[in-house]
């Protein structure tokens, strides 16, 4: 039997025609090449080369062996190429989902990290509501979903991402514009734009009013936080929004006011229970967690999310 190292050395001599050339090709010493060639010939009882004028020529009886060696070497090259492609992500696809509030700013920043790590990776991103996320995972359409809430489901596991806060957003020129903070009671005095309080995401926004037993009226309802921001920017009212939707200046043209009452909430990654995660999705989760924790209230510099600089 020949080892892969012996195959590599014999082929190098065959290709270059000299011991010195083989040594340079393999970046090893010439005496080591010479000894291994002699040992291989002796152990197999086959003479591989004839030496003429300092060059090595294959013997007639070794021609078939060299043909097989080239075949083995090609297989090794093919294996190396496949490993390289896997390392770049060329043979895989990252399939992930996210609720709208996290998909606006945080997911793209995490995907940027993933793309740098795996430049050839196929990526499929789905923006999902709660009822869609469950089937998305259980039916194997994707590996994970970034969520701003968790639920009890026997088929799903939830891993923590980061904590966030809520902000009041107002259009430029509004009488609250320019203030650093506002109370929940003050917010209820103005026309509100928001998500349906029965929606899990909308419930997060409504909680600040429920805790203080404040009556409020949502004059315009929208399904997504980005739509809420657009309506506020148009001057149609004010709203309460999560910090991840508007982080890093993700929605310009509105002003952010800190809410005096506690508004902290948690976000999660949902995965199918018992399903193994690919290396690519593990790296995406780690990247998303890093991006979101960089703007966590307890880790940041105390400024509104739109004022933060990028952290890596």
From TrEMBL:
Which residue ranges does the record assign to the HTH lysR-type domain?
Answer: 2-59
Gene Ontology MF: a single term: DNA-binding transcription factor activity
- Identify the domain of life: Bacteria
State the Gene3D superfamilies in the record.
3.40.190.290, Winged helix-like DNA-binding domain superfamily/Winged helix DNA-binding domain
Q: Which InterPro entries match?
A: LysR_HTH_N, LysR_subst-bd, NocR_PBP2, WH-like_DNA-bd_sf, WH_DNA-bd_sf
The Gene Ontology biological process terms listed for this entry are:
positive regulation of gene expression
Under the heading Pfam families, the entry gives: HTH_1 (PF00126), LysR_substrate (PF03466)
CDD domains noted in UniProt: PBP2_LysR_opines_like (cd08415)
Q: Does the keyword Transcription apply?
A: yes
Alphabetically sorted, this entry's keywords are: DNA-binding, Transcription, Transcription regulation
UniProt lists the family membership as follows: Belongs to the LysR transcriptional regulatory family.
Could you tell me what this protein does? NodD regulates the expression of the nodABCFE genes which encode other nodulation proteins. NodD is also a negative regulator of its own expression. Binds flavonoids as inducers.
PANTHER family for this protein: TRANSCRIPTIONAL ACTIVATOR PROTEIN LYSR
Q: What is this protein called?
A: LysR family transcriptional regulator
Which organism is this protein's natural source?
Answer: Bradyrhizobium hipponense
Organism classification, top ranks? Bacteria, Pseudomonadati, Pseudomonadota, Alphaproteobacteria, Hyphomicrobiales
